[in-house]
Amino acid sequence: MMPIGIDKIGFTTSQYVLNMSDLAQARGEDPEKFSQGLLLNALSIAPVTEDIISLAASAADQILSQEDKEKIDMVLLATESSVDQSKAGAVYIHSLLGIQPFARSLEFKEACYSATAALNYAKLHIEKHPESRVLVLASDIAKYGIGTPGESTQGAGALALLVTKEPRILTFNDDNIAQTRDIMDFWRPNYSTTPFVNGMYSTKQYLDSLKTTWAEYQKRFDGHLSDFAAFCFHIPFPKLALKGLNKIMDKSLTAEKKAQLLENFDASISYSSQVGNIYTGSLYLGFLSLLENSTDLNAGDKIGFFSYGSGAVSEIFSGQLVEGYQDQLKDKRQQDLDRRQPLSVADYEKLFYEEPQLDSAGNCQFQEYLTGPFALTAIKEHQRQYQRVINHDKT
């Protein structure tokens, strides 16, 4: 069978950061509620000029060569922070990146799960068209109301995954198990800018979906946790993912295997603990964090994935690390995170909740903020205007 999987990974987040200790002080909370109760240290905060389009384009811009742009014939954007009810965000990104015109561009939605659906679609396309390359993007900005229980689980970021035959990072195994259940644990109607959340219920559904999907995976594929070097989880907040790992660890595991899984889990949450919840990209940020922070991985290792999207769809699948995967990684990711500009809580509230103020003709100009290489620069007659920013170090 022709190997298909992830050939390159790009990641970007916003240029501003809110430290959880500052948020705890402002909200009258014990800082350990966030640092220990959620395993969160900081949140990336996006200004009005940084949205899912600019983030996704910036993530892809890191990894795409001119050859990639000539061979990509499908651009798939997974998001639950869409900027338009009709036009797919992938169309903007296709244009910004200069990808050849004869490409299919689509947007996927099912809460935090849809990037996994996009990867499945990409895999099927490569099976049919082996010389093709598919760009899968997971881009989101998680927003909640000030002072709400969800405020501490916000975030912003995007992952870009290039799917090809004979990939250089991970090959997909043909062992996907998905489950759908019609529940209302987290949802955002069209008329609301922030979601409605039944937090405790959502947590229970996440863990129960994991338990039952994992049981079905074991049944169909004679799967054992001992077969995996690491297991990556959707990460609404890192502590929930840890509960997930503990949920599927059984007494048959040796002490050595448990230690390996826990050590690699810690590596997988390193970036999320500093960025927060990025919805569709959270699982794949965990995978990238695992690859760039683990000291205990080798080519051929089997990596497990648990994808979850409220509403709810979940999926478990696996992949194998490819010889030389380390050569495709970035060795200065932490420096990028450390360069983000810290915000006071007052500045965060002003920045994060600024909305476009349109005039009667549907026009809006924005104050300049720090962004990545792409930015939303204006809205003209209700049309969003994006540009590559030559100097994106302005405040």
From TrEMBL:
<feature type="binding site">
    <location>
        <position position="243"/>
    </location>
    <ligand>
        <name>(3S)-3-hydroxy-3-methylglutaryl-CoA</name>
    </ligand>
</feature>
<feature type="binding site">
    <location>
        <position position="277"/>
    </location>
    <ligand>
        <name>(3S)-3-hydroxy-3-methylglutaryl-CoA</name>
    </ligand>
</feature>
<feature type="active site" description="Acyl-thioester intermediate">
    <location>
        <position position="112"/>
    </location>
</feature>
<feature type="binding site">
    <location>
        <position position="30"/>
    </location>
    <ligand>
        <name>(3S)-3-hydroxy-3-methylglutaryl-CoA</name>
    </ligand>
</feature>
<dbReference type="InterPro" id="IPR013528">
    <property type="entry name" value="HMG_CoA_synth_N"/>
</dbReference>
<protein>
    <submittedName>
        <fullName>Hydroxymethylglutaryl-CoA synthase</fullName>
        <ecNumber>2.3.3.-</ecNumber>
    </submittedName>
</protein>
<dbReference type="GO" id="GO:0006084">
    <property type="term" value="P:acetyl-CoA metabolic process"/>
</dbReference>
<dbReference type="InterPro" id="IPR011554">
    <property type="entry name" value="HMG_CoA_synthase_prok"/>
</dbReference>
<comment type="similarity">
    <text>Belongs to the thiolase-like superfamily. HMG-CoA synthase family.</text>
</comment>
<dbReference type="GO" id="GO:0004421">
    <property type="term" value="F:hydroxymethylglutaryl-CoA synthase activity"/>
</dbReference>
<feature type="active site" description="Proton donor/acceptor">
    <location>
        <position position="234"/>
    </location>
</feature>
<dbReference type="InterPro" id="IPR016039">
    <property type="entry name" value="Thiolase-like"/>
</dbReference>
<dbReference type="Pfam" id="PF08540">
    <property type="entry name" value="HMG_CoA_synt_C"/>
</dbReference>
<dbReference type="Pfam" id="PF01154">
    <property type="entry name" value="HMG_CoA_synt_N"/>
</dbReference>
<dbReference type="InterPro" id="IPR013746">
    <property type="entry name" value="HMG_CoA_synt_C_dom"/>
</dbReference>
<feature type="domain" description="Hydroxymethylglutaryl-coenzyme A synthase N-terminal">
    <location>
        <begin position="12"/>
        <end position="164"/>
    </location>
</feature>
<feature type="active site" description="Proton donor/acceptor">
    <location>
        <position position="80"/>
    </location>
</feature>
<feature type="domain" description="Hydroxymethylglutaryl-coenzyme A synthase C-terminal">
    <location>
        <begin position="246"/>
        <end position="351"/>
    </location>
</feature>
<feature type="binding site">
    <location>
        <position position="144"/>
    </location>
    <ligand>
        <name>(3S)-3-hydroxy-3-methylglutaryl-CoA</name>
    </ligand>
</feature>
<keyword id="KW-0808">Transferase</keyword>
<keyword id="KW-0012">Acyltransferase</keyword>
